[in-house]
């Protein structure tokens, strides 16, 4: 049994490419080429060089002494927060921009919620000299002003999504509509392991560098490649997919997926898709999604804009359905307190998304000999205003 | 014979009109259908509103959002259509995205369509391959035609594949665009329409996306069996309400 994608683009019953015919040529072009192009030696050489010299990889696997004492287990932090632009997102945008260039595309579009993927896309477009348009919900533009400014400084156009609830889901809709309107010259850089096949697999592969490094770093530090637990937060699920990737089929590694419960899983203000979602189709993928009984997609809520998505990548839906991963829901309050605790204990201010993963340590049943890797997916600079408001700093 | 095929055999210059069920008001559905038939329209596409219509431009998006706010749902639509066949003969198609249909249950949905007298479905995000592998026999069991789309980017080979599994008509998307584009047709579109003509497909085609007036409808009728109007009709409804539908149809047909 494998938890990776099959040749038809499915993870168990999840995945596929439920796209209008207008998108078929572009998605099909990608499907036929992504494995071939990314396997080419010159692609790999350029990708690896950029990850090393530009992104700053490998990121450290840091033994968190104080955290380990508190939880009485061996806890390591995979420091994706130290990547250029402040999060793991750039691993994927580097990969996709190299692919877009090889496909001869000249115009790049992307969606963004909190702005991290938008910044990572604008960054690689600046690097490669390509036109960049980032779709962002009008509501998010207002609440994430610093990232909007960063994208503009990097030369990107930030286009407000004015439809629906004007957040991440709608920004994604607008990016897809733009792609329908510009099928010849445009490449769509999706920011998570969502969307039609091959996107979930492609993004997971670009992010899989995280678990490649964890394996070799852990071997050096602990004399073994596999930890007992890998813990990551899941919105769409790209940092989690990267952290789990090379452990998926190693059944002795326990996979912990941490979702945002918002104000409580059943409060009506939550983004805990595994708990609240039913199978359906969102953004071209069959997966678990939050929806009404009538099949209308509902608005999620989380204090963390990066987890505020009504679906989840099909890989994760399958990990949930097969019970390969344990899903834990963490409320806003518990995440915020975990973020503050990590700051005080280890001197690392995490992104609020990542804080959810740290809060999960409180509810895990850890033994002293357990080796735990928490994917520290992003740094908290972008969230300072939210921390300030929450803790009255 | 399915009403869609019958109509396509009997008539040229087919005019198909799309509207969003539940817009402008929740209970306008039956009235709009009856008026469209009386005005001489040939085919009607009833839009089942969805929260996230990926292939639609702002006009249809907004009408769907309004319809949902008005209380439209799959169940409500079927209740509204229960008695529709007592009053109209016109072929009826439901156009909707796949997720609400999955939640209703695909077979239950097809069965209900057959019960109320729906003749076909257009589901933009149900791709050809999935349709053929998983749903074709089910649709056929309930006598429903699944209308498939082609676009200017669709290869000749794929158009022929789509033609081979099509019943009724092929929906020719006029340009690389979501719905509601009203810039008119240029030589690029005409070249594309001629390319389709030269393929000598077995299925008749109706051209949609960008048909909004007499000129564009006539172009559609020149190069294909007729045309489909959506956004322009919805704009008419939002400007004039539901009492001057015949005026709109006349402006296209005259």
Strand order of the largest sheet of chain A: 3-4-14-9-10-13
Summed up, the helix count of chain B is 12
CATH superfamily of chain B: Aldolase class I
Specify the biggest β-sheet of chain A. Answer: 6 strands, mixed
| Cα-atom radius of gyration of chain B | 17 Å
As an assembly, this protein is: heterodimer
Order of helices and strands of chain A: EEHHEHEHEHEHHEHEHHEHEHEEHEHHEH
What's the shape of chain B? globular
> Main interface pair?
A-B, 36 and 39 residues
- Number of structural units classed as domains of chain B: 1
Count of beta strands of chain B: 9
Provide the residue-averaged pLDDT of chain A: 96
Shape assignment of chain A: globular
**Class inferred from helices and paired strands of chain B:** alpha/beta
β-strand percent of chain A reads 15-25%
Intertermini distance of chain B: 30 Å
**Number of E-state strands of chain A:** 14
Query: Helical percent range of chain B?
Result: 40-55%
Please report which band the strand proportion of chain B falls in: under 5%, 5-15%, 15-25%, 25-35%, 35-45% or over 45%.
5-15%
Task: Describe the structure concisely for a colleague.
With 393 residues, chain A is an alpha/beta fold. In chain A, 43% of the residues lie in helices and 18% in strands. Chain B has a single domain (13-253), classed as Aldolase class I (TIM Barrel), CATH 3.20.20.70.
Summarize this structure as a short list of keywords or feature phrases.
heterodimer; A: 393 residues; six-stranded mixed β-sheet; four-stranded parallel β-sheet; 43% helix; globular; B: alpha/beta; TIM Barrel; nine-stranded parallel β-sheet; 12 helices
List the helices and strands and how they pair.
The complex is a heterodimer of chains A (393) and B (254).
Chain A: E1 10-11, E2 14-15, H1 24-39, H2 41-55, E3 61-63, H3 65-71, E4 74-78, H4 89-102, E5 107-112, H5 116-128, E6 131-137, H6 138-143, H7 145-153, E7 157-161, H8 168-181, E8 186-189, H9 199-207, H10 209-222, E9 229-233, H11 238-244, E10 254-262, H12 273-276, E11 278-282, E12 285-289, H13 314-321, E13 325-331, H14 332-346, H15 352-360, E14 371-375, H16 384-391
Helix pairs in contact in A: 2-4, 4-5, 4-9, 5-7, 9-11, 10-11, 14-15
Chain B: H1 3-10, E1 14-20, H2 29-38, E2 43-48, H3 58-69, H4 74-81, E3 92-96, H5 98-104, H6 106-116, E4 120-122, H7 128-141, E5 145-146, E6 149-150, H8 156-165, E7 170-173, H9 187-198, E8 205-208, H10 214-223, E9 226-229, H11 231-240, H12 245-253
Parallel strand pairs in B: 1-2, 1-9, 2-3, 3-4, 4-5, 6-7, 7-8, 8-9
